[in-house]
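Hey, resending since the last one bounced:
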Amino acid sequence: RCLVGLDKEGATTVSSEALSQLAGVKPTQLRKDLTHFGQFGTRGLGYDVRGLLTMLGDLIGASGELQPVALIGVGNLGTALLSYGGFASEGFRIVAAFDQDPDRPRDARIRVPIHPMDDLAGIVENEGIHIAILTVPTTAAQGVAEHLIGLGITGILNFAPTVLSAPPTVRVRNVNLAIELENLGYFTRQRQPENGHPSIHSA
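The structure tokens again:
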């Protein structure tokens, strides 16, 4: 994303120091990480922005054909994710959504087809889907995850507020918005002085 921004601004080269500052990491860590994939930079000149962007895009699958993704559970959060237009720029496309009640009224702007759960197996196979987003209730999350794994899904982005059990061959990323807010709340409370007002030095 940092490189995309630089490219849009017309930058042709960027130093490791400048790029690390944009990415919020140390320059030494950025250079070390990139060397795992090859020799990208030129000493004294930095990195070629478009060249590095292309190579990293190829490595993480953000270049070329978009990876198909299924979304399970089209409630409020699922609907919001279906309306989000930024997945394509990261190399992904939600090709189908699934819900127990696919025909109930939803935002008319959603263009992704919503199918009944009974269609899941056939569409996952036909579309070559290996990644799924879970936005189902907590009580259903584990059962749905096991069903997905049985269909060959190997990557799950889980928004249900529960930790899923999965075999080592399946990568699960848990996104719990409430916990993230709790973390922020704890951090901001620690930054409050005794009078309850933010300190001028707290930043």
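The longest strand covers residues 92-99.

Sorry for the duplicate.
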